[in-house]
Amino acid sequence: MTNGQHATRWTALLSEQRVPRANASAAQSATDDPRTPFQTAYDRIVFSTAFRRLARKTQVHPLAENDHVHNRLTHSIEVASVGRSLGSHLARFLIDRGDMPPERTDDLLWIMSAACLCHDIGNPPFGHAGENALRDWAQRPPELAFGTPLDENRPATESVDDFLLFEGNAQGYRLASWYDNNRYGYLRLTYATLGAMVKYPWISSHPDAKAKGKHNVYSTERDIFDAMNRELGRFVEPVLGRRHPMSLLTEAADDICYRVLDLEDAGELGIIHESEIHDLFSNALGLDEEDAARASARPISERRSRVMSALIPATWSVFENDYEAIMAGERTTDLASDLPEPLKEFMNAVDALYKARIFSERSKVASELGAHKALGRIAGSLCEACRELTAGSSYKSCGFRARRCLELAWGLAFITENERQPYDWWLHQTMDYLSSLTDNYARQLSREIEGT
Q: Cα 452 to the chain's mean position, in Å?
C-alpha cells in the first residue's frame, strides 16, 4: 500500500471501545475524567491488586532472597519502558507515512505502556513452573482432577479444557477484559490495549492451542475476543483473529528484557560468572578484543544498557521492514527471529544458556519441585470442595474439609452468595484464585490445607 492507505486501519486499531458494562445507565457511563481512555487503562493497571501482587511473584528464580533479583513487577515496569521506546519509533513512522495524525502519538504510547505493564498480570505464582504445575495437576486421570462424572457420563466441558491448558496469557486477558470488577479486580481495558497484549490470537478450544500448547483466551472470554477482533479489524473467524501490530512490539519488549536483564540476575545469583556475561554483551555489541577488555573494567550495568540501546532500534527495523505483512496479519514469528548478527546470535546464546544451566540450577529446580507440590495440593483441594458444593447446591451440605477450604479461598459471604452457581463457573473462580496467589502465600496456604 502507498503512504496513508493504512490510516483507516489504524483508526480501528487504536479503538477506545471497551467491553460494555452490564446494565450500565447513561449516568453511570458519563464521566468528567480529563484522562483519555488509554491513560485510564494504564492507571487501572497500576492501582490494581493483581498488579501489586506481581511484586511477590517469581520472574525466573523462585523465592530468591537477593533483593536485586527481578520479580514480575519490576520486570513488567522495565518491559513497559522498552515498549514505550518501541512505541515512539512506531509513532514517528506512522506520522511520516500519513497513517496516523500527530495528535494520536500520546494515545499510541499509552497503549504500548499499558499493554506491556499488563502482559504478565495473569501469571500464577512461581513463574512458568506454576503454569506447568497447574497443567500437570489438571492432566491427571479425570476422576482424580475433576471427579468421576466427567469421565463416565459426559465429555470434558470447555472450562475443563481451559484448566487443562492453564495459561498465564489467557488469565491476563480475562483480568484485563472483563467488566464486572468482582473480587479479582477485572480491569475492562480498551480494545486497543487488549489487542496489543494478545500474543496467541486464538482461544483454548482452537486446534492451535493444543498443537502449540499456547493460547491467549479462555472459553469464558470467547464473545469478548470476537467483539474485540471485529472492532480492531482483526477478525478472521469465531475464536480466531490476526495479531494487532503493536502486540509484536509488546512481545519484543518482553523478549529484550527477558534476555538481557534476567541474564544479569543469573550473574547476581552466581549462576553465571560475571566474565561470561561481559563476553556475551561484548559479542552482542561487536566489540573487538581491545574494546572488550576496556569495557570489562566498567560496571556490567553500563554494557547492559548499551546492548539494550542496540536491540531497540534493531528490533524496530525488523518491524518497519515487514510492515505490510504485519498489517495484513501475515507475520506470526517474533521480531527477534530476524535481528541482524551479532544481536541475533546474542539472543540465541542466552536462550541456550538458560536451557543448559539456568533452568537446571539446583536451587531453582528444588524450589520448583516444592512449588509443583504446593499448587497441586491447593488446586486439588479447591476443585474437590467446589464439586462437593455444586453437587449439593448448598454450602451447608458440604463436609467439614470442603467448607474450610472454600472459606480459606473465598470467605463465607462470597460462597453463600454464589452457592448455586454451576461447577464450571466455580472452576474458573478456582483458576482466578490460583493465579492471584503470590509465591509466599501459595506456600503458606498449601501448609494450612495440609495441616502443617
A: 33
Strand partners, 58: 71
Distance (Å, rounded) from C-alpha 320 to C-alpha 125? 36
pTM value is: 0.92
Check: CB of residue 443 under 8 Å from CB of residue 374.
yes
pLDDT in tens for each of the 452 residues of the chain?
Answer: 556 789 889 999 999 999 887 665 544 555 678 999 999 999 999 999 999 999 999 887 766 766 678 899 999 999 999 999 999 999 999 999 999 999 999 999 999 999 999 999 999 999 888 999 999 988 877 666 776 554 444 456 788 889 989 999 999 999 999 865 456 657 889 999 999 999 999 999 899 998 998 999 999 999 999 999 999 999 999 999 999 999 999 999 999 998 898 888 887 888 888 888 888 988 898 888 777 777 777 777 888 899 999 999 999 999 999 999 999 999 989 999 999 999 999 999 988 887 778 777 787 788 888 888 999 999 999 999 999 999 887 899 999 999 999 999 999 999 999 999 998 899 999 999 999 999 999 999 999 988 87
Cell output for 313: 532500534
Residue with cell 503458606: 444
* CA 137/CA 364 separation, integer angstroms: 20
Q: Which three cell numbers stand for residue 192?
A: 486497543
Q: How far is it, in rounded angstroms, from Cα 308 to Cα 243? A: 25
Count of other CB atoms within 10 angstroms of residue 30: 8
Identify the burial level of 195 via C-beta atoms within 10 angstroms of its C-beta, where 0-12 means exposed, 13-18 middle and 19 or more buried: buried
Return the DSSP state at 358: I
* Cβ-based neighbours of 66, under 8 Å, separated by 6 or more: 268, 269
Q: In this structure, what DSSP letter does residue 237 have?
A: E
DSSP 164-195: HT--HHHHHHHHHH--S--TT------HHHHH
Bridge-based pairing state of the strands 235-237 and 240-241:
antiparallel
φ and ψ at residue 141, rounded to 5 degrees: -50, 140
Burial level of 404, CB count in 10 A (0-12/13-18/19+)?
Answer: middle
Gyration radius of the chain's alpha carbons:
23
